[in-house]
Amino acid sequence: MDARVPVIVINGFLGSGKTTLLKSLIKETKEKGLKASVLINEFGKNDTDGQIVSPEINSKDIETIVDGCICCTKKSEVVYSLEKLLRKSPDVIFVESTGVANPEEIVDAFSNREIISKLFLSKMVTMIDAQQLLEQNILLDKKLQNTVETQMIAADLLIVNKIDLIDKTSKPEIITDIRENNERGKIIFTTYSTFDYKYIFESVTNKTKSLTSLFDRDSQHGNLSYTSLATITLPAPNNLNEEKFKSFLLSLHPNLLRAKGYVGLQDKNGLFLLQHVKNNTVFQKVEYHKETYLTFIGIDLDAKQIYEGINSLQNQNS
């Protein structure tokens, strides 16, 4: 019997629903009587996604790599993090990549001789934002567009998420776009990353996939998954006007791809988890007791514009 630990990688562009899926998979793992460990890679300096999933799993079973991508600049941390998780004797390891990770490079990072004998790639899942796929013009950078396409090429399972935000008649167009990049992967349409998770867990017992045979085309190791993509993190005011802040976020488009963090809102008690993707901004009340902050992810972001904008919003409310 193969004693190696299965690894399930969750890819997908910024804001596609990876963390929501990860949270659900952790719950499903517990219901199946299995133990999960998690490796989360945050492109920004703060561990927002780790905070989101932490209520579902012991903190000792989570490793987080921040401020860079495990597929390139953070490869040296991957082995150390996976070794720590393997010592916890998990039944499965979930890996949530950054929104701009190149799957080829992720696989390369996992191919280190120190760990390849201890784990195997069980499933490569790619989350796809349905609205984002239909409006690909928001991806101003060609290398980012190539990364999205590579994420689709690599997937065993393609989850088209947020279909409640598109016209139902758009499904054939989405399928055509996906099939141009991936002819074999299973496609599932969903909302809130909810579907029959058997399509993921059935692979946990299938220990045949090779880390070195995932791709049928020439490898492009060495090419970074992003070029002009950057993150800006700053302290968040505790009294933001919700509507004015939404307008401010929209004013940063099309360069702003994603914003997240923990903020306080005017005339509302407690703190809120901010999730912003394209035109959609959601504030979810949460139990959070650390310093508030905002992280902006985008292409050629103007740091001065963002800092001045947040300061202006704060001054208007003071």
Automatic annotation (TrEMBL):
Domain CobW C-terminal, chain residue ranges per copy: 229-314
Reactions catalysed according to its record: GTP + H2O = GDP + phosphate + H(+)
GO cellular component, one term: cytoplasm
Pfam families: cobW, CobW_C
Record PANTHER family: COBW DOMAIN-CONTAINING PROTEIN, COBW-RELATED
Family, per entry: Belongs to the SIMIBI class G3E GTPase family. ZNG1 subfamily.
Cited Gene3D superfamilies: CobW-like, C-terminal domain, P-loop containing nucleotide triphosphate hydrolases
Keywords, alphabetical: Chaperone, Hydrolase, Nucleotide-binding
Record's protein name: GTP-binding protein
GO molecular function terms noted in the UniProt entry: hydrolase activity; nucleotide binding
